[in-house]
Amino acid sequence: MPTKTEEINQAVMARLQGIAGPTVKRADERDAAIPTGGLIVMNDLAPANVDGPLGNRGPWYVTGEIDIEVLVHVADEAARHAALDALLAAVEGAFAADITMGGLIYGFELNRPEVEVQSPTGDAGVKGGIVTMTVEYQSDTRL
Question: pLDDT (tens digit, 9 = 90+) per residue, 93-137?
């Protein structure tokens, strides 16, 4: 049986994979090239704060973060801006219908990223940023 952390990772991936257009991968599957529809790379949940009762018995109340990297590679500058904005809106929309992910978490918060433009090969810029998703949940174990 997977840990609560892995269950949340799988739920987030499933919602991201439901977005039409971009290629969606977990961090350990990242490619150097950015596909035409954009690229979303989900980094696994990292528990940031674990709180529980004395005596080292659960349940544990956890606040953690998932970094979701969103990238587009479009030649035209205006189209590049619009593509990233649309992809960020799609990421938010993928989670809007169910903020508890079917009761798996108490809730979440998405933070708009600091956006960067890069030209790694000297051609049209790559534009993107990292959306930090903060989740709160309860677990029977610290892991």
Answer: 999 999 999 999 999 999 999 888 876 666 668 899 999 999 999
Compute the residue count for the chain. Answer: 143
By CB atoms closer than 10 A (0-12, 13-18, 19+), residue 110 is middle
DSSP states along 45-107: PEEEEEE--TTS-S-EEEEEEEEEEEEEE-SSHHHHHHHHHHHHHHHHHHHHT-TTTTTTSSE
- 4's tokens: 């609560």
Q: What is the pLDDT of residues 14-38, one digit of tens each?
A: 999 999 999 999 987 766 788 989 9
Q: What are phi and psi of 115, to 5 degrees?
A: -95, 140
Query: CA-to-CA distance for 142 and 60, rounded, in angstroms?
Result: 6
Q: What is the pTM of this model?
A: 0.91
At the second CATH level, the architecture of 4-139 is 2-Layer Sandwich (3.30)
Question: Where exactly are the structural domains of the chain?
Answer: 4-139
